[in-house]
Write a structure and sequence with these properties.
Radius of gyration: 21 Å
Number of strands: 6
Shape: flat
Helix content: 10-25%
Distance between the termini: 52 Å
Structural class: alpha+beta
Oligomer: single chain
Strand content: 15-25%
Largest sheet: 4 strands, mixed
Order of helices and strands: EEHEEEEHH
C-alpha cells in the first residue's frame, strides 16, 4: 500500500484539482482514484483535507435528463412540504423541527 503525496494549501502542482474545482470546469472524476491529498492546517484541530484528481483523466459532467429534473423537483418539493399541515412552507423545513415554523410554534413564540 502506497501513501498519497500530501501538499499544503495552495501548493498543489498544476494538472490536479479537487472535486469542486473539477465541477467548476464542468468535469467529474469519472471513477479515477485519488492521486494526492491537499491539507490546510488548523490551530486546535486536525488539518482540513481535500483529495486531488488528475484533470487530464477527468470526464465531462453528465447532462441532466428530463427524468433527473423531475426527480430533483419532486425531492425539493418533499423537503418544503410540512408533514403536519401538508402545506408548502415556502422554504426547506429544518430537520431540527421536523415541521414548519407555524406548526412547531403555534402561538407564535420564538424558541
Amino acid at each position: 500500500m502506497t501513501a498519497l503525496p500530501v501538499y499544503r494549501w495552495h501548493l498543489a502542482p498544476d494538472g490536479l484539482a479537487t472535486r469542486r474545482q473539477l465541477r467548476a470546469m464542468n468535469l467529474r472524476p469519472g471513477g479515477q482514484d485519488v492521486v494526492a491529498e491537499l491539507q490546510r492546517p488548523r490551530r486546535k484541530r486536525g488539518p482540513l483535507v481535500a483529495y486531488l484528481y488528475r484533470i487530464d483523466r477527468a470526464k465531462p459532467v453528465r447532462p441532466m435528463t428530463p427524468a433527473r429534473w423531475a426527480a430533483l423537483t419532486k425531492a425539493n418539493a418533499a423537503r418544503r412540504s410540512c408533514p403536519s399541515c401538508q402545506r408548502d412552507a415556502g422554504y426547506v423545513i429544518p430537520t431540527s423541527l421536523g415541521m414548519c415554523a407555524t406548526c412547531a410554534h403555534p402561538l407564535g413564540l420564538a424558541a
